[in-house]
Amino acid sequence: VQLVESGGGLVQAGGSLRLSCAASGSTFMINIMGWYRQAPGKQRELVAAITNGGGSTNYADSVKGRFTISGDNDKNTMYLQMNSLKPEDTAVYYCNAHMHGSGINYWGKGTLVTVSS
Predict the structure, then answer these.
(1) What is the pLDDT of residues 67-79, one digit of tens each?
(2) What is the tens place of the pLDDT at every residue in 88-105?
(3) Which of 50, 68, 84, 97 falls between 20 and 30 A from 103, CA-CA?
């Protein structure tokens, strides 16, 4: 499975961005997809996750009510709509795919989100 993120950039506090993650390869074996982020000097953390088919979602407390994760199975693409962005949301955002059966995790290369105050 290959994952390619896009949509990052520089935005002012209070603004919005939409990240995309395009998946290719054995996408039918994907069980859960998620967005993680890693800020400078910090550990990578889960931001949001969604089950294949979109039946269940999960969010970090810090983004609940501001971020929305969604997926388009026809396009093999996952999205993260980020609203009311804060400077503490600044990080590299990574797309993750967790495979059914093997449990292997695939990662994209990341996209940088910078929120200015």
Answers:
(1) 999 999 999 999 9
(2) 999 999 999 999 988 899
(3) 68
